[in-house]
Amino acid sequence: MIDGMLDELIVAMRDLHRRRRRRRRVAGAAALIVLATAVVWGTRPGSDHRMVPPVTGPIVQVVRSAPRTGVVRMIDDEELLRRLAEIDRPTGLIRTEGRSWLTRPVVGRPQV
After folding, report:
1. What is the Cα–Cα distance from 31 to 17, expressed in whole angstroms?
2. Which of 76, 86, 81, 73 is nearest to 102 (CA)?
3. Which residue ranges make up each domain of the chain?
4. CA 58/CA 77 separation, integer angstroms
5. How far apart are CA 28 and CA 36, in angstroms?
6. What is the dihedral of CA 78, 107, 86, 64, to 10 degrees?
7. Which of 16, 32, 45, 89 sits CB 3.0–4.6 Å from 84 for a disulfide?
8. Is the separation of the CB atoms in 106 and 84 below 8 Å?
9. Which H helix or E strand runs over 95?
10. Among 109, 76, 72, residue whose Cα is nearest residue 95
11. Region of poorest pLDDT, from 22-26, 67-71, 81-85, 101-105
């Protein structure tokens, strides 16, 4: 009985590994086809698909609720976080893929 179970388990494991290898090969081939298609599509004569360089400088967004003093002062991330903490709006900053997020809302009523 145990030998029969072992044989079934060995067959099942071989099938599992065979399916996994097949999936990896198909996924690799699909990725290669997608990449080749993208390269061919992007280098066609007359195509104007240019890569946009990532933004490396500060991004200034107009906030309508801000008073219009006529003076804009750029501050770095550390100063922003420090000033928010001073007005009881502590938060963190997450940067990924060229975007930034604060970890908590900083406008409206203070979070408890």
Report:
1. 21
2. 81
3. 1-51, 53-112
4. 10
5. 12
6. 70
7. 89
8. yes
9. strand 93-96
10. 76
11. 67-71
AA letter at 50: R
Q: Is 66 exposed, middle or buried (0-12, 13-18, 19+ CB in 10 A)?
A: exposed
Quote the pTM value: 0.35
Quickly list DSSP for 48-86: --PPPPPP-S------TTS---S------HHHHHHHHHH
User: CA 91 to CA 68: how far, in whole Å?
Assistant: 26
Dihedral sign of CA atoms 33, 39, 45, 51 in order: positive
Helix (H) or strand (E) holding 31: helix 2-42
Pairing mode, strands 93-96 and 99-102: antiparallel
- Token pair for 103: 């970890």
Instruction: Tell me the pLDDT tens digit for each residue of 10-60.
Output: 999 999 999 999 999 999 999 999 988 888 776 665 555 555 556 566 666
Q: Do 103 and 93 meet the contact criterion of CB atoms below 8 Å apart?
A: yes
